[in-house]
Design brief:
Elements: E1 2-7, H1 10-19, E2 27-32, E3 42-43, H2 51-60, E4 65-68, H3 71-75, H4 78-81, E5 91-95, H5 101-104, H6 106-115, E6 123-126, H7 131-140, E7 145-149, E8 158-161, H8 164-175, E9 187-191, E10 196-204, E11 209-211, E12 216-217, E13 220-222, E14 226-229, E15 234-237, H9 244-264, E16 269-280, E17 283-290, H10 298-301, H11 309-317, E18 332-339, E19 363-366, E20 369-372, E21 375-378, E22 382-390, H12 393-404
Bound molecules: adenosine monophosphate (AMP) and glycine.
Glycine (GLY) binds at residues 217, 231-232, 290, 294-295, 297.
Length: 423
């Protein structure tokens, strides 16, 4: 099977690492990829959103399957694009454009959850046309209050306001000043839920599903979960508090109604669903849906999938996922992200990276790197994820921490407290 994998981060390196282990994979191309992916396949200079170039490439190279890493091409309709007659034989892993709205529109996701009776924070949605109602809604709402730009906003579209003034100012910025452009034409305002977060990952063919390992990521830049939000500074899997009793609630109240809801609404969805949850007392609530795998969650989820991933992915097309099981390895995984100085705000690129070859017994996943004149350099805010496996969570974290110290580049920073609340 010939595969084209789209994306360029640590998630895609981890997917490439896993897919390359399959005897079914005869050739892999990664577009645009990163230097870490090179050992598993050929790098192709095509952007993830350039569907026409992907079409030409797939036809020229007899590609059988396109695995889509990031949300952008999914929300822009890559699945639907590949439904055109000359491409129909190529199997795209991911939801249809409308299915991807579960991530692409917070209002769509909220309406879906409300309709399917899936537990989530209470909410209302507002646009310019009912702006004054929004002001009144905010004024009478309890604090904190959560405002979310409806569309994709590169992880920056959520404001948790501790005061009514802050909420009103953010509401004005989003709707009147179009802070996020079209993405904040509609704003979802929801109640703040207090609890501990985790994520579950599901692979579905639209009718059946299999559960992948759970994970928890660490979004804040600073130790003790302080400071600005990032794409993710590290992750662990499994999550200690995600036990059988909690997973049963998640399955009955969230996963099954989600899959049934997609069927009921005739939404074509053959890919990954990443469900961001919050545990309030003992009960799960959905914070968000994503239509793809997480980053850096994939860097701990893939190493815990014990069986070949390709038969599972292949089964999506003909809706035969129920004939397969996803075997999850019992060991613990932890990943630690090395980031550039200044991240998640402005940072410089092009810093020489050394020490990667000194890492022992961990997996180095490249996130934002490039090779210039035979030298490995930084090429993003998140640079390298170091994943370790252990018989305990603590051992996995310890190993990643020790190996993180061996890699250096100017301004290198990483959190030394990943998994801190479970020590
Ligand atoms: P989202 O982009 O929807 O995942 O939101 C980003 C982050 O904001 C989440 O990971 C949560 O930490 C926080 N958050 C979002 N919605 C809520 C909510 N209703 N209650 C509490 N925290 C929330
Ligand atoms: N780590 C969070 C995400 O991938 O959205």
């Amino acid at each position: 099977m010939k595969i084209l994998l789209l994306g360029s981060g640590g998630r895609e390196h981890a997917l490439a690492w896993k897919i390359a282990q399959s005897p079914l994979c005869t050739e892999m191309f990664i577009a645009p990829g990163n230097p870490g992916c090179m050992q598993f396949g050929k790098i192709v200079e095509i952007s993830v959103n350039d569907f026409e170039a992907q079409k030409t490439f797939c036809l020229e190279h007899n590609i059988d399957m396109v695995v889509v890493g990031p949300e952008d091409p999914l929300v822009h309709g890559i699945y639907d694009f590949f439904q055109q007659s000359t491409l129909q034989h190529i199997h795209v892993i991911g939801p249809s454009k409308i299915g991807a709205q579960l991530e692409g529109s917070k209002a769509f996701a909220k309406q879906f959850m409300q309709k399917m009776n899936i537990p989530t924070a209470g909410y209302r949605e507002f646009t310019r046309s009912n702006y004054e109602d929004g002001i009144e809604y905010i004024k009478q709402h309890t604090l904190p209050i959560v405002l979310k730009a409806d569309g994709l906003a590169a992880g920056k579209g959520v404001v948790i306001a501790e005061s009514t003034d802050h909420a009103l100012a953010s509401f004005h910025e989003m709707i009147q000043d179009k802070k996020f452009g079209d993405a904040s034409t509609t704003v979802v305002i929801e109640e703040f839920l207090t609890g501990i977060e985790c994520s579950v990952f599901v692979l579905t063919d639209g009718t059946h599903y299999c559960l992948l390992p759970s994970a928890k990521d660490y979004k804040r830049i600073g130790e003790g979960d302080r400071g600005l939000n990032t794409g993710g500074m590290g992750a662990i899997s499994p999550v200690p508090f995600v036990d059988d009793a909690f997973m049963q609630k998640v399955t009955e109240r969230i996963i099954e109604p989600t899959i049934k809801g997609l069927q009921q609404e005739q939404i074509v969805y053959k890919g990954f669903i990443f469900i961001g949850l919050i545990k309030v007392n003992e009960d799960p609530y959905v914070i968000e849906y994503n239509c793809r795998m997480g980053d850096p969650e994939t860097e701990v989820v893939m190493p815990r999938i014990a069986n070949d991933l390709l038969p599972l992915l292949t089964a999506l097309k003909n809706e035969t996922l129920h004939e397969h099981t996803c075997k999850i390895a019992p060991h613990h995984a932890a990943t630690i992200m090395l980031v550039s100085a200044g991240y998640p705000e402005d940072y410089e690129k092009g810093k020489v990276i050394s020490g990667v070859e000194d890492v022992k017994d961990s997996i180095v996943f490249h996130a934002g790197t490039k090779i210039i004149n035979d030298e490995l350099q930084t090429n993003g805010g998140r640079v390298i994820a170091i994943t370790s496996l252990g018989d305990t969570l603590q051992n996995a974290i310890k190993l990643s921490n020790a190996n993180a110290l061996k890699i250096s580049f100017e301004g290198n920073y990483f959190r030394k407290d990943i998994g801190w609340e479970f020590e």
